[in-house]
Design a protein that fits this description.
It contains five helices and nine strands. It has a domain of about 120 residues: Rossmann fold, CATH 3.40.50. The protein is globular and about 50 Å long. The N terminus is likely disordered. It is of the alpha/beta class and about 200 residues long. Strand 2 and strand 3 form a beta hairpin. Strands 1, 2, 3, 4, 5, 6, 7, 8 and 9 form a nine-stranded mixed beta sheet that branches.
């Protein structure tokens, strides 16, 4: 279940580690892939976006699914990356070695603004660390995987993009730690499904 590469796509660099160690595919991999961090969101997206999804991977709790996209009938894989840059980098490296060629992170972020803005998003390593906001005062949002995914994709000459929803909002309370407000689970699920649909549209363009 793979798609022919676009004529304009750059050649893919040979992977430094051609074998998949952490992913153990049980179904075919599509060349286009969505990368949610949360395995539960991967399942929810598969149920919404794929026709008759098949389990692609369940090793190490990194759930992944493959099927034809409801939107366009073309093959699509949805593979969880787990939390943080190291896990995401491992998953992306192995997906590229297995044949993935166009990928979009579909993740969550914490916003430092209440209105829509255009600006920087910062990737961090620590989820529970208020100092991230102090070190990145101009950042509009904070997340944990995009920088690592971009670095791995760039090294392999494979295009990687990122779409984020805001799951948490931080209120700056200087000099005190910021207050975190998280959206409810139903709203998070609905936003994740909408984000996935946008990502599939981008991959179909």
């Amino acid at each position: 279940m793979s798609q022919p590469a676009h004529e304009s796509d750059p050649p893919v660099a040979a992977p430094a580690y051609p074998q998949a160690i952490h992913l153990r595919p049980t179904a075919e991999l599509a060349e286009r892939v969505l990368l949610p961090g949360d395995p539960g969101r991967a399942l929810a997206l598969a149920q919404t976006l794929l026709v008759k999804p098949l389990m692609f991977n369940h090793h190490r709790g990194l759930w992944g699914y493959t099927g034809d996209a409801v939107a366009d009938g073309e093959p699509l894989t949805i593979q969880a990356t787990g939390m943080g840059g190291p896990s995401a980098a491992i998953v992306l490296t192995e997906l590229i070695s297995l044949g993935a060629r166009r990928l979009i992170r579909t993740g969550t972020s914490g916003s430092t603004r209440r209105r829509v803005h255009s600006g920087a998003v910062v990737s961090v390593d620590l989820f529970y660390d208020s100092r991230s906001l102090q070190h990145s005062p101009d950042a509009l949002a904070i997340e944990m995987e995009a920088a690592s995914l971009f670095a791995v994709g760039a090294a392999a000459s494979v295009p990687v993009a990122c779409i984020l929803i805001v799951s948490d909002t931080f209120e700056r309370n200087d000099p005190h730690p910021p207050t975190r407000t998280r959206i409810d689970d139903d709203s998070l699920l609905a936003a994740g499904e909408a984000m996935g649909a946008v990502a599939v549209s981008a991959l179909s363009a």
